[in-house]
Specification:
Alpha-Beta Plaits; 2 domains; four-stranded mixed β-sheet; 342 residues; Alpha-lytic protease prodomain-like; 4 strands; alpha+beta
Length: 342
């Protein structure tokens, strides 16, 4: 029923896009719905166990995690034995690869859990929280390695260059092999793609450690080890910079990257029947699902249901926003939130 002047604001519920209805009726209340699919056709694709070769892809992830954990142990123990902080730094970086891959595997498994009354959006944001914790741990370790390297610059200890070169060469082979194992899955998953690119970057770091070992072996230049450690730590922190900013934006319910709130407002107000928009909030349910909620003031004589459908269609077509919660108002009704203010 269309709102009339003098009546309270109309909150849209029954005309909501059918793709969003499982958020009004979480699984467990008689309205089962997918846990974490992208609205508008994402249900049944990657992350829900229906993509082609999912089992094979997950076995590849498990192997990649196991190989990287074994490499981490070898590099850290070898670095301690050879007294090479550069090798320890490379081992820690490979540990970040294993954690990233483990996180990707766990996220794929959690994504299959159904939504519930207490977890109505499913479990996809668990990946964001775990990523934030891993990034903080990696930053702490990188800073510690930099402090150790600075302390060694004044009097670099002797380093077993042969062991350093052997383990760095092994790391290079493992990094390239891990990238090969995750290459297929990286085409369909942003999270795994990040781990894939991370492994390629690690291959470059392993080359740097290999060069450092060669300099020590050939010329006895012990300063190469702490200098390379500083360089590796800087590379790790630089590599995390963009990813950490994105995770923080997700956790703080910031607007999705690349989505301009003013452009969204212009798109909405250009729809016939919309007089104005306010209380516009843009955020992300997870890394793949942008969402919006807003108050629309209808023009006089506008059809609420038709206007609502047109606004949702415009949001999806121009900004890939398929989950939108919209409250309808009229100029006569005013904003219901005003009544809540003291």
């Amino acid at each position: 029923m269309a709102p009339r002047d003098g009546q309270g604001p109309v909150t849209h519920r029954h005309d909501r896009d059918p793709r969003d209805r499982h958020h009004d009726h979480p699984a467990g209340n008689g309205h089962p719905g997918p846990a974490t699919g992208d609205h508008g056709g994402g249900h049944g694709h990657g992350g829900h166990g229906h993509d082609h070769g999912a089992a094979l892809g997950e076995r590849a992830l498990i192997w990649a995690v196991a190989i990287n954990l074994a490499l981490t142990a070898a590099q850290v123990l070898g670095g301690l034995a050879a007294d090479s902080v550069a090798l320890v730094a490379d081992g820690v970086h490979n540990l970040s690869d294993a954690l990233a891959l483990l996180l990707a595997f766990g996220a794929r498994r959690l994504a299959r859990r159904p939504a519930s009354p207490t977890m109505s959006f499913g479990w996809s944001r668990a990946e964001i929280v775990a990523a934030f914790a891993n990034y903080l741990a990696l930053i702490a370790v990188s800073v510690w390695l930099m402090i150790e390297a600075v302390g060694r610059l004044a009097d670099p200890p002797p380093v077993a260059a042969g062991l350093v070169m052997a383990l760095a060469g092994l790391a290079l082979v493992v990094d390239l092999g891990t990238a090969g194992l995750t290459m297929r899955l990286a085409r369909d998953s942003l999270n795994i793609r990040a781990a894939f690119l991370h492994n390629l970057a690690d291959a470059g770091v392993s080359v740097a450690v290999l060069v450092g070992g060669a300099l020590i072996w050939a010329f006895g230049w012990r300063m190469a080890d702490p200098l390379l450690t500083l360089g590796i730590s800087v590379v790790i922190l630089w590599h995390l910079r963009g990813d950490l900013a994105r995770v923080l934006r997700l956790l703080m319910l910031g607007a999705p990257g690349g989505v301009d709130p003013q452009a969204v407002a212009r798109t909405v107000t250009a729809v016939p029947g919309v007089g104005s928009v306010h209380h516009l909030h843009l955020w992300q349910i997870d890394e793949r699902r942008p969402a919006a909620d807003m108050h629309l003031v209808l023009s006089d004589g506008a059809n609420p249901a038709a206007t609502l459908r047109a606004v949702k269609a415009a949001l999806g077509a121009h900004h890939a926003i398929a989950h939108a919660t919209i409250e309808l108002e009229t100029t006569g009704s005013g904003c219901a939130d005003d009544a809540l203010r003291p």
